[in-house]
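Subject: for your reference before the review

Hello V.,

The reviewers asked for a structural picture of the protein, and I figured it would be easier to keep everything in one thread rather than splitting it across files. Below is the amino acid sequence we used in the manuscript, unchanged from the supplementary table.
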Amino acid sequence: MPIGPPFRSTNAPRRRRIGLLSTYPPELCGLATFAAALERALRDGGNEVDIVRINDCAEGPALARPVAAELINGHASSRRRAVSALSRCDVAIVQHEYGIYGGPDGDEVLEVLGALSIPTIVVLHTVPHEPTVNQRVILTAVTELADKVVVMSETARLRLFATYPIDRSKVMVIAHGASVPVLHACDEVDGSQPPRRQQLLTWGLLGPGKGIEHAIDAIALLEGHRATTRYTIAGVTHPKVLASQGDGYRRSLIERTERYGLSDVVGFDDTYRDVAQLTRFVASASLVVLPYDSREQVTSGVLVDAIAAGRPVIATAFPHAVELLSTGAGIVVPHANPAALANAIQGVLDDPSRLAAMAAAARGLAPSLSWPAVADRYVDVADELLAEDALSGQRLANLAGANNASMAI
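And here is what came back from the structure prediction:
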């Protein structure tokens, strides 16, 4: 899988002023978490980072720290301020997801990209396999306006080439980053000591499409494991789901657990954890279960976090899982198939040596997924673009000088 090794250019300067356009904490969404983690890793690498926060409305949640500007959807003046703030930087990194920008399918991002005069790296978090006509037009325009386009899996790269007219030389794969714990729980599983209780874990913001109901159905099918297994579902309802549909999905999961009589096996955890706490929490699991309904998901931060924590994964066959788990770090099963999920879980729990091998394969991938390694790759791309920009400028200056000389003659 070409996620790329961590690398560092030896000649290029490493300190840059980087603009980052994204949703941002305290907003609860995957892109905000991604942006905060990338910002932290870039700063730790000695770079200056200016955050331009995307905000759905003028009265957004209070920020924990100041940002360079806010892009308020539907407000032309805020787009101008966002462009101005980003233009003070050496390079802009722009997160793209249709739902975070204003306008039909987020078309307001095109005005921002079109007004930037600095090199721009666009990170695609979604690459629809069957886009609507407007989604196709917008994503094509986004890639045309970008100097470099980053996707986070080989599957996304191939889908981009197959579905959209795009300059292939612009596109590169940089993995979704993750926090890598210093020590991993369950590092040594040799079968000589029976586990007290195997910990299964699913976590993240909850809502329809997560497929957790299928995982609960699978737990009900496990034979002889009730006394030795604990399945934890960690997370709160996604804020947008909560606003539009309420907390019904989470309540339905609790009710499903009670109907099966699984309250002693399946637990719900809505504890808030910071990055370090979440990393330790994930590393304490024996097995991560990702039963997502989506057949489109080419990037999953939760999947990457699990692998970076050295945890074996059983997931439905969404594209990123098929790609990343092909290394031996996990197992993929059909969607919406509790029996297949139960068979996979039971097979791993009954074979400690297989669980250990999956964990070892996950740990082998972890170094290239760490946020410092990922941030280094973004800085390398920035250095490459700036070097190309400087060379182009020098060529224009030389051409202008030659023209002036010929006119003088």
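For the response letter, the relevant points are probably these. Residues 1-12, 184-194, 395-403, 405-409 have pLDDT under 50 and may be disordered. The longest helix spans residues 371-408.

Happy to draft the paragraph if you're swamped.

O.
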